[in-house]
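Objective 1b. Sequence-to-structure analysis of LysR family transcriptional regulator.
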Amino acid sequence: MMNFEQMEYIINVANEMSISKAAEKLFISPSGMSQSITQLENELGIKIFNRSKQGVTPTFEGKIVISKAMTLLNTIKELNKEIYECKNSNQTHLKILTAPTFTFILQETMVKFNSENQNITFELIEQNPTEIIQNFNKENYDFALIPASLDDLKKEKNIHFEHIHTGHICIAVGKNSPFYHHDYVTPSGLKDSKLVMYNSSDYKKVIKLTKPKLNQVLVSSNSSSLLYKLVKESQALLFLHDFSIKKSSMVINGDIKIIPLKEEKYFPVDFWLIYLETKNLTKVAREFMDGFLDNLKKAFNL
């Protein structure tokens, strides 16, 4: 009898027209996938695929089997979503995984959301964007917020993603910084600058261009208050995204200034909401995200 795993295999092979590409997408060995499909063909007494040097194509009987498998898997996914939503319709706790760049706006949203829904509690976990993608399937998070490329997200299994913003990499500096009055800075212009850095941040592209020496990094910490204090009172700079603290009092009153990083063009970054396809977003999570996105939009209308 055809199982869920075999259904997923034949659907992906049909989409990719290649066993090796489908196996790579599902992170299994091509030989293991091929053996499983052959076993299914033997059990059904038909050929599902024609295999040739040009690729893999469904047979007439195979198209029928693949169509039924798609219908069954979609039905199962919808059923899982309905069961999850039913179980969590009165949800009172949100478990959120986030990159550090979202923390300030998330905290602001939590305070307002809790004042309007006093029975709601939150659990907020900060991680490096790479770790978020690796760990998201392993824990029972309601959703995650992450800077990432579309190509990276497409590689992930069982994750649904929604684009929420395109921003830019910037630096935060205090009044003592030589960059404070600049309209923008370039990576080459930062090569000898003192830095403070989030432990959980992922600015590989920028670090590769600026190539800081070990003695240039004054502090590496997950304490945002410590990092902002150092930026405010020293010449050190902090890499962050354009909206991260734009609404904070220290930016509004001028103690800290956010300056875009520019080479031939500004450094664009796409930001995403991600959640498991099998869970979807609960009503409470969607309402919270509506409030978060509203605060995110306000960050660009000071």
